[in-house]
Amino acid sequence: MHRHPPRIAPRLFFRGVFACLCAIISQAPEIASARDYFVKSTGENGAFPTVQSAVDAVDGQTETDRANIFIAPGKYVERVAVEKPFVTFIGQGAAPADVTISFNGTLVYVPQFSLGETVFVGPDATAFMARNLTFENSTPDRNVGPALALNSQADRAIFDNVRCLGYQDTLLVDGMARQYFRNSFITGDTDFIFGNATAVFDRCTIESTDYGYITAASTARVTANGLVFLDCSLVQGSDRNLLVDDGTSAPANSVFLGRPWFASPSEQMPSVIYIRTRMGPHITGAGWDPFDYLLDPVINRDPYTRVSEWGSMDLSGAPLTDSNQDGTPDGRVQWADPMTAGLAANYTVQNIFGPVDFWNANTQPDASTTGYVSQGDPWNPDIQLLSLPPKPGARGQLLNISTRLSLGNGHPVGIGGFIITGTESKKVIVRAIGPSLCAAGLENVLADPVLEIHGGPGNTLIAMNDNWRHDPESVTELAAAGMEPTRWRESAKVATLPPGAYTAVVAGKNGSMGTALVEVYDGDLIADSQLANISTLGFVGAEDDVLIGGFVVGTGLVEVVVRALGPSLAQFGVANPIADPTLELHDGNGSVTSNDDWQTGADPDSIPASLQPLDPRESALHLSLPPGNYTAVVRGKAGEMGVALVEAYNLQ
User: Fold this and answer.
1) What is the arithmetic mean of pLDDT over 99-126?
2) Buried b or exposed e, range 378-399, using 16+ CB within 10 angstroms
3) Where do you find CATH 2.60.120.380 in the chain?
4) What digits encode the pLDDT tens for the residues 597-632?
5) H or E stretch including 453?
6) Which residues pair with residue 158 across a beta bridge?
7) Can 155 be counted among the known catalytic residues?
8) Which residue among 191, 210, 466, 545 is the active-site one?
């Protein structure tokens, strides 16, 4: 039996900041966000009858004002070519199978289509995204040759919850571009994921319908990473249409993890990495095929390939036998490259698409003769995904708050406030983080944070948690969202809350002190409600002991007012308010906007009167922000210390 943690005693400053949060929900003119196009096969109500006709109509889009093409449920039998940047396909069905773009095409030349694919995403379609739909090449499985469902050559392309259906050569990821597949399903038999792109497959299901090869990478020798599979499942399947297909399935020990697309050209060094992959019995013990027409599995491909595994499992999650503890399961070909736990830990989405110098040191080409070439500035697909609207016409949103604060110096709790607006209840994920901050180089962290959520009439206690693993219901939802804290003493709670004002309060167990994070995540982007305003109360100390309020903007431009308050907190009962707070706002690219004394800003009159600070020494910024991560930093002028309040208000 777990003991319940002590409740955090209410204080005047706690009631005061709650009053501040509830005081204002400002209404402002709506700012135009992403452009919407609609596809429905009947063409009714002004919709485009084909996907291609909608693509042809796209014009004027930008990275922060994307062209979003919403596709109604149905089967669209056509070829589609996208050669414009910042375009999104969004299926409006309940599942990816409800919206299918399909064509029967093999390896022939057609204008715009050199490989007979169903959908072509060209090199000019920068930052293309697709969600919740199916790309299908319906050519029957009769071993007639390549039949691509998707040919993706665009840099920074994202495919979220999509299906790619084909047999031979289902999916081409090429153009030496960067591409990200998340929670997707890809099926085929021969070389059905191939190309020279740096492509990450994150939590995807890969199905083989016959004996053959999953991958056929043609990674350039100067590209650091090729095809990377993170937490995927490799499963057996069978032909989808027994009336026209040849009726095959994938028997045991019949499918290779991959083979190099070409034998050994000097410009190529195919790279394929599997990390924490569940593998069915159809995967061969040898694992890799050398692409040798004599079918000699002993041939040494090590000088020409970069292939590696770590943490491979069977479908039940039991580790495959790895006697050498080098990531290579017993029975694999001798030329497979070793992997260590330390190297495997580096294979994250951020690292793979980050600096060019990240690679598996055991698989790199000879550094004396080969250097890796940059594919562009570091790219974070999670940030790009924030620009996907949950539904047509969705306005810009504040999605998450993540606030660093210090507990101590007479301020024993940290408070993160947020307001939910709209008509529906919203699921939120609230976390109190302490011990894991050591990994970020922080000292004096809060060793055992306790979390409470308050709201409603009288600011009553709604939920609490001490040690996230003690709440089985939240554990399940945290795992599904990938939001489990990394240390068991940290706290988290998943709650569904009606519109209103709330505070997340963190304190140290048994009165302990230190630095902590209070985080609030939007767990339901589809609900007709949103996080409108976010606010954090905390202590500002000397030097780097600053108050940091982080938030994430998604789905189009957001008009915000960010404030740093100090002197005016005294009237709400807050003890020891900071006398003169300064404000900095940092974006994900390192750019900084700042203010000291709001009336001296660039355009102080543009701040709505109801949000203008009460004291001239307080700071404020009025900005329109594109999707991305933002960090508000509050310091004391001339090293002053005290309690401050940092706030971000969504004016839409």
Assistant:
1) 77
2) ebbbeebbbbbbbeeebbbbbb
3) 401-535
4) 999 988 888 998 888 999 999 999 998 888 777 888
5) strand 449-455
6) 129, 180
7) no
8) 191
- Give all strands (DSSP E) within 46-122, no chain letters: 67-71, 74-77, 80-82, 87-91, 99-103, 119-121
Query: What mean pLDDT comes out for the span 367-373?
Result: 60
What ranges make up the beta strands (E) of 167-246? 171-173, 178-182, 185-195, 198-202, 205-217, 227-230, 233-236
Q: How confident is the model at residue 366 (pLDDT cuts 50, 70, 90)?
A: very low
User: Which segment of 31-40, 43-52, 121-130, 566-575 scores lowest on mean pLDDT?
Assistant: 31-40
Confidence of residue 171 (pLDDT cuts 50, 70, 90): very high
pLDDT classification of 548: cutoffs 50, 70, 90: confident
Burial zone of 264 (CB within 10 Å; 0-12 exposed, 13-18 middle, 19+ buried): middle
Q: Could you give the C-alpha distances from 13 to 414, 570, 576, 582, in angstroms and in order?
A: 11, 9, 10, 21
* Burial of 530 from C-beta contacts in 10 A (0-12 / 13-18 / 19+): buried
For residue 424, give both structure tokens. 């529906």
The pTM for the full model equals: 0.65
- Reply yes or no on whether the pLDDT at 172 is more than 80: yes
CATH code for the part of the protein at 188-354: 2.160.20.10
Of the chain, the percentage scoring pLDDT greater than 90 comes to: 41
> Quick one: which of 174, 178, 104 has its CA closest to 139?
104
- Of the candidates 141, 169, 522, 545, the residue annotated as catalytic is 169
Judged on CB neighbours under 10 Å (0-12, 13-18, 19+), 332 is buried
> Among 3.40.50.10840, 2.160.20.10, 4.10.400.10, 1.10.1740.10, what is the CATH number of 31-153?
2.160.20.10
Does domain 401-535 match CATH 2.60.120.810? Answer: no
Q: According to the CATH classification, is domain 541-651 in 2.40.30?
A: no
Q: How far is CA 340 from the centre of its chain?
A: 26
Give the pLDDT mean for 516-534: 72
Q: Is 191 a catalytic residue?
A: yes
